[in-house]
Amino acid sequence: MTVRLSSLDAGSVWLTLYFVLNLSLTLFNKAILNDFGFPWTLTAIHTLCGAIGSYSLYLAGLFTPAKLGDHENMVMVLFSVLYTFNIAISNVSLKLVSVPFHQVVRAMTPAFTIALSIMFLQKSYSKMVYLSLVPVVAGVAFATRGEYDYTFIGFLLTVLGTILAAIKTIVTNRVQVGRLKLHPLDLLLRMSPLACLQTIIYAQLTGELSAVREFAAENMSTNMLFGLIANGAVAFLLNVVSFTANKKTSALTMTVAGNVKQVLTIVLSVVIFNLRITPLNGVGILLTLAGGAWYTHVEMTQKSKQQSPVLPTTMTKPEDEALLDLDYNEKKHEEDLK
């Protein structure tokens, strides 16, 4: 029972929170950007709230930052650049391609995640994993079927943004479960200030900050100000949950979850904004949801097979667990020799 409860906490709970907050922030962002059309400034607000929130939780004693050397600190700087550059490419490409086309290309993120993991991390995946991704990717293509309008440069930037999204997801997972083993809040504390500074610099270079100052002088209201603060708070919670879910699951799981989230956004848009969908869109929605459920089943089945065949049903002492693992490993080694 203890093992099952731990597994539930490690997977289902955090992914559920990720879905709820991700969907909420997507719809919240759409509402905010209708009146406050400055995406880079909004991103700066998100990262600023991430820095303030994570530092506040550090002061409250909820986590202890790891002691990193110069090499590890440089990794954090590069990660923040990757985070900011990923957003930049995505925003620029959206101006050059239609939203349906953008979503279809981004649906290929799991494929890029697998390719990069195989090439650089020497990971391997079963045939069932590959098969379960087919309905997920195809479903997003059908669900977003519409006006596929794009330029050649837009196409290249969208593909580049998809590759960067896959790299970012993999790196996020590695810095939390690899040699660094950073706490999710520790990662957010280190990444947010750097990303905020980079975003502000980019907004200044593109002239957005000047437009924001003019807008604030003429149109900023108290309700909009509180809306921006609330939006930043939701973004902070999403970052915490996203990093934690990534750490407790895998990079590939997070990219599949992102695809399912895209389709759920369409479903909510139908309900909230009275968006019309075609029968083909409906088939795509069902395909993606079914594919996401299939992938989850495949992953959980494979994880259960990888676990030790002897699982204690009650809490045992660490010494006992170590003896069980040692005994199992010795038996497995003897079987391999035979």
From TrEMBL:
Segments forming domain Sugar phosphate transporter: 14-295
Residues spanning the membrane: 12-32, 38-63, 75-94, 100-121, 128-144, 150-167, 187-205, 225-245, 252-273, 279-298
Membrane topology note: Multi-pass membrane protein
Principal location class: membrane
Protein name, entry field: Sugar phosphate transporter domain-containing protein
Matching SUPFAM superfamilies: Multidrug resistance efflux transporter EmrE
PANTHER family: SOLUTE CARRIER FAMILY 35
Keyword check for Membrane: yes
Comp. bias (Polar residues): 305-316
Record's keyword terms, sorted: Membrane, Transmembrane, Transmembrane helix
Protein location: Membrane
Domain of life: Eukaryota
Any GO CC annotation of this UniProt entry: membrane
Biased composition (Basic and acidic residues): 328-338
A Pfam family annotated for this UniProt entry: TPT
InterPro entries in alphabetical order: EmrE-like, Sugar_P_trans_dom, TPT_transporter
Positions of region (Disordered): 305-338
